[in-house]
Amino acid sequence: MVFGTALIGLGLAVILLDIYWAHPESPWLRVLSLRLLPRWLRALVLGGIGFLVLSLAVVGINRTLLAPYIRPGRSLVEAVSRHRRLRRGPRVVAIGGGTGLSTLLRGLKKHTGNLTAIVSVADDGGSSGRLRKSLGLPPPGDIRACLAALSADEDLLTQLFQYRFRSGEELTGHSFGNLFIAALAGVTGSFEEGVLEAGRVLGIQGQVVPSTASHIQLAADKTLSSNGGAVRIEGESNIPALPGQIRRVQIEPNDAQAYPPAIQAILAADMIVIGPGSLYTSIIPNLLIRDLADAIKVSRAYKVFVCNIATQPGETDRLDCCQHLAAIQSHIGSVLVDTVVANDQLDVEMPDGFVAVDPALEKSYPVPIYTEDLVDRAHPARHDPDMLADVLIALLEERTGPLDWAEEFALEESRDLTTDTLI
Fold this sequence. Notes:
This protein is of the alpha/beta class. It contains 16 helices and 12 strands.
């Protein structure tokens, strides 16, 4: 650009010199050519003015290009700095579903833009269940919530994405985001492409992918509290409806294949976070996909299980944190994680039907457990997204240390090579 600008300046100088020599005594030309000044000072003045104009032009171009990313009250420098910092952040994979996963993502997106949410597709209730039955699509509900959580700013567009119709014979109960994803799936030809395009519309930081592209159903063996007998319950939405203790859950078909981008994200991750979320209906169904569980086992990432703040009625009643981890281990056959993160603030008034999960520090855990006050005071049954994200990033940096520019670029090629080799 500088070389081209210099050539244009030389071309104009040739024309101006012809005019100047043709009218050497013109007073206007004497003033405009700065003839009253020494030649070195004329060169300095003209060069300085040119540099100033060029700088203003470059700043104007940058402001125009960055306008979609600049928010009121945030300077251009701050926007660029934040974008570069998030782009260099650790690669984090979050596995789960429901409100817990979207809460986690809402906090993590402030630390890194390299996020991948792997979401369960076993949901069969509400708007997602209706679309699943009528259109044959995987349930979009949890995916929609994660897309909204990862959006750059949860402004009007995101609120529209989360809007749920309250009237209309066919629309009542449907979320606009679910319908939008279903429409994009029809336009693009696949559900996965529809989710990708929805993420581009919202300008999300990271990506949201289903755990599998297969249509899976969730079934559970449950001991009823009334007579102690065991029953088989089919359908994710039906499992918490009956009181009792869940013995085991399984997916049908049990040989469902993992979605390839989910495997790639796990193998390339710096950190894998399992949970928070519904233990038996959101977290374990993802881990029952064999390819997904195997990828987590061989991944070199730092693996963390985040225990829920409160028990879920009909699903994890009276279970402490150690029993949450044991349930995962009994289904998968091994401990997948390196650390457990749990809340230790139990003196919080919970909503009706919810009980704070005891970290049970007196029990013997197969892996280290880290406890902290993680309760969201506005929603006591949920994690505070910022506090949870701060704890996870601090644990990761304590284990690996913060990466600088040189380390990040040096690891880039080796990480990609490792991913291709493992795949």
